[in-house]
Structures are given as structure tokens and as C-alpha cells.
């Protein structure tokens, strides 16, 4: 067995932990670029707390999921303002944008030198600016990952800027920042978090550390996701889902993902669909397809034995005892229905798009982590079921 494990330099978790950050930030830099969502006023109290701690502030807002141009503009703003620190406060897109900005601000030039899939994927020559990540959703776990997902409009795909140097210096997970999330966002981000503890658990390169985190997180999600969806002020449920998201980020950064995320990159790039909602609608269909494909392998195949054992464990963790692998997929499908996750057609996807989506998904790094290779016919079937 051989693996590596890396995460954010420091993690602060718990209700109210955001109040400890300004003092820490003051010891990391003198002027911060604070990256927020489209309405910086929502974070005005936090922004003012940094000023009160003696940290100069420049605000950069990100509308929607970040594009390559977004990261370039943010990096230019940081350099022009003399920022020596970047702080991201927002959902997964904002956290990714801040991560990319901190990297590109210290590494000027063409970002395609460093981008995966559509670029040269070269290592960053210089360390990024120190980065503090403060998520306001319980979904992507981006506060503890080493990559930033950016949309290339020209290529109609989402790709990663990735480096071990991009792990945030400080990750601050304060469940109180998620209380204001509406039910639909709670559901889609929560199912994204669930996807990110299921896929690393069944991937073709799991580790003992990520296995433990994923199993614990699946149990928490099994009771907390519905409760947080039904009552956004349920403190116990919000705290549990914040942990699920955190564990998912750690897991995907140190193990691998699978077909759900393989499809998420081209679907997001071609249709602008929210990442969490894509993962949510695809998850039960990918689970069923993987289980069926694993069962079709010879009984002596180690991948079959290990994969089905892990899907059976997931079913037991989600349902509290049902021991057939398919029960886990059924449980997720039922949750998707209850939380009214929109179908792919909502975003303009049609059957005519399936061949392109399948080809792009097969080329993604995430698809390489799937526990079993899926045929084009099976991949097309997944899209058809989610349409």
C-alpha cells in the first residue's frame, strides 16, 4: 500500500470560529483581497472585522461559478492593490476563485501554462499568496482541496488549476455561515457533499484515512441532510453537514472521484448548470450503473469483490441496515425526489448533446477514478435517466 495525504495548513471548525480569523489574518499579511459572491454587502460585518484588526481590504466579487477570466481579473486586482493575502468568503465557486487568484497573482502570465486538460498543466513556479478559505455552504469542501475549478467558455468545459501549493493556509468552517442557505441550495450542496464522500470511498484508489472520513460522513449525511433541508436553523444538522463537506474535500483531495464528477465538468461548462445540482441528479444513476457494471465482472475479479463490498457498506450506512448494494442507490434517489432536485433538461440539455458530453466526460481526470470502466452506452444511459 502506498499513498500520500495532505490538507490545509490549519483548520478551524465550529460555530463562531469566523470571529477568530481577523487576528490570525493580521499575522499573515497587511493587505487582503477579499473574494466574495456577487453581493459583498452580505459579508460586510466580516469584512469590517478585518479592517478593525488592521488588515487593509480590497474587495473582489464573483458572480456565479468562476471563469478563467474571473481568476485573471482577480489576480490583476490583487497585484494592482498590493495585496499580500487572499481571503475567500462564499460558496464553492468563490472559494475556488480565491484559490486560483492567489495562485495567479504570484504567477503572472498565461494561465493556460498551468491549466489541466486544455492547457500544459505545468507546475506553478512560485508559491501562491497566503490564502484563507471561509465557506458559506456545506458542499464542495474546496477549503481543503489543492485545485480550483474554472470554466473555459471557449472550450465549454470546466478544468482545474491544480498544485499542492494551492492548499489553503487556513480553512475556517463555521456552520453558522450556512444557516441562511435556502432549502434548494441546502439540498444541492448537501448532495454534492454526499457525492464527495461516496465517490472517494468506491474509487479505484482509496486510502485508509479517506475511507474512515467517508464512512463517518455518510452516516452524518444520512440523518442531517433532510433535517437541514427542512429546517435551515437546525444547528445540529448544519454542523453535521459542514463536517460532511469538510470530510468530502479532504477525501477527494487525497483519493479520487468518479463518473458523477466526470460528467459534472462538461455539463457545467456547456450549460452553466450549478455543480451541486448536477452531482445531485446524477449520483443515484451513477451508483446503479456502477453496481450493475461491477456485477457483470467475473466473480474472481478483485475489482468486483471490493467495489460491491464498498457499495454494500454505503447502503448499510445510509439506510441503517439494508445490506444489498442497490439499497444505497435507492435511498439517494428517494432523497433527490424529496428535495426536488431539477432534472438535466432544466438547464437545456437534450439527447442531441449526449455524444459530446460522453466524449468530454471520458477525457476528464475524475472519470479515471471510477471503480469500473463504463461503456459509452452505459454513460449515455446515465444521462438519459437524469434528463
CATH fold-level topology of the largest domain: Dehydroquinate synthase-like, alpha domain
* Shape category: globular
**Biggest sheet descriptor:** 6 strands, parallel
Percent in helix? 40-55%
CATH architectural designation of the largest domain: Up-down Bundle
**Average of pLDDT:** 96
In total, the number of strands is: 8
Count the helices. How many? 13
What portion of residues belong to β-strands?
A: 5-15%
Strand/helix succession:
EHEHEHEHEEEEHHHHHHHHH
| CATH homologous superfamily title of the largest domain | Dehydroquinate synthase-like - alpha domain
Structural class estimated from helices and strands: alpha/beta
Radius of gyration: 20 Å
- Separation of termini? 40 Å
**CATH class annotation of the largest domain:** Mainly Alpha
| Total separate domains | 2
Ranges where pLDDT stays below 50 over 5 or more residues in a row are: none
Spatial sequence of strands, sheet with the most strands? 1-8-5-4-2-3
Describe the structure.
- The chain has 387 residues and is α/β, with parallel strands linked by helices.
- It folds into two domains: 168 residues, Rossmann fold (3-Layer(aba) Sandwich), CATH 3.40.50; 204 residues, Dehydroquinate synthase-like - alpha domain (Dehydroquinate synthase-like, alpha domain).
- Helix content is 50%, strand content 11%.
- It contains 13 helices and eight strands.
- The strands form two sheets. A six-stranded parallel β-sheet has the order 1-8-5-4-2-3, sandwiched between helices. A two-stranded antiparallel ribbon has the order 6-7.
- Helix 8 crosses helix 12.
- It is globular.
Amino acid at each position: 500500500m502506498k499513498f500520500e495525504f495532505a490538507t490545509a495548513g490549519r483548520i478551524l471548525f465550529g460555530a463562531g470560529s469566523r470571529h477568530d480569523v481577523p487576528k490570525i489574518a493580521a499575522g499573515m499579511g497587511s493587505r487582503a483581497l477579499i473574494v466574495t459572491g456577487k453581493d459583498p454587502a452580505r459579508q460586510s460585518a466580516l469584512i469590517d472585522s478585518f479592517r478593525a484588526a488592521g488588515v487593509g481590504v480590497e474587495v473582489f466579487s464573483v458572480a456565479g461559478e468562476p471563469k478563467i477570466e474571473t481568476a485573471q481579473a482577480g489576480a490583476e486586482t490583487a497585484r494592482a492593490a498590493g495585496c499580500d493575502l487572499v481571503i475567500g468568503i462564499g460558496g464553492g465557486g468563490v472559494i475556488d476563485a480565491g484559490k486560483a487568484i492567489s495562485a495567479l497573482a504570484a504567477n503572472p502570465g498565461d494561465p493556460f501554462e498551468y491549466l489541466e486538460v486544455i492547457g500544459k498543466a505545468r507546475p506553478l513556479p512560485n508559491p501562491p499568496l497566503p490564502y484563507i478559505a471561509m465557506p458559506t455552504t456545506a458542499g464542495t469542501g474546496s477549503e481543503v482541496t489543492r485545485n480550483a475549478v474554472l470554466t473555459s467558455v471557449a472550450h465549454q468545459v470546466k478544468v482545474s488549476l491544480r498544485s499542492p501549493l494551492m492548499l489553503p493556509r487556513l480553512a475556517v468552517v463555521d456552520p453558522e455561515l450556512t444557516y441562511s442557505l435556502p432549502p434548494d441550495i441546502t439540498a444541492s450542496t448537501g448532495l454534492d457533499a454526499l457525492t464527495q464522500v461516496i465517490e472517494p470511498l468506491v474509487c479505484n484508489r482509496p486510502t485508509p484515512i479517506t475511507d474512515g472520513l467517508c464512512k463517518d460522513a455518510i452516516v452524518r449525511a444520512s440523518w442531517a441532510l433532510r433535517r437541514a433541508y427542512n429546517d435551515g436553523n437546525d444547528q445540529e444538522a448544519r454542523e453535521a453537514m459542514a463536517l460532511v463537506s469538510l470530510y468530502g474535500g479532504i477525501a477527494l483531495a487525497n483519493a479520487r472521484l468518479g463518473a458523477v464528477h466526470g460528467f459534472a465538468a462538461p455539463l457545467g461548462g456547456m450549460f452553466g448548470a450549478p455543480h451541486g445540482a448536477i452531482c445531485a441528479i446524477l449520483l443515484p444513476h451513477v451508483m446503479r450503473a456502477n453496481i450493475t457494471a461491477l456485477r457483470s465482472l467475473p466473480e474472481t475479479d478483485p475489482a468486483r469483490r471490493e467495489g460491491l463490498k464498498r457499495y454494500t457498506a454505503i447502503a448499510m450506512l445510509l439506510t441503517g441496515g439494508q445490506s444489498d448494494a442497490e439499497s444505497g442507490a435507492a435511498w439517494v434517489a428517494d432523497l433527490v425526489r424529496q428535495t426536488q432536485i431539477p432534472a438535466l433538461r432544466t438547464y437545456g440539455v437534450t439527447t442531441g448533446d449526449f455524444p459530446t458530453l460522453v466524449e468530454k466526460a471520458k477525457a476528464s481526470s475524475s472519470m479515471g477514478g471510477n471503480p469500473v470502466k463504463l461503456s459509452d452506452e452505459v454513460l449515455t444511459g446515465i444521462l438519459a435517466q437524469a434528463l
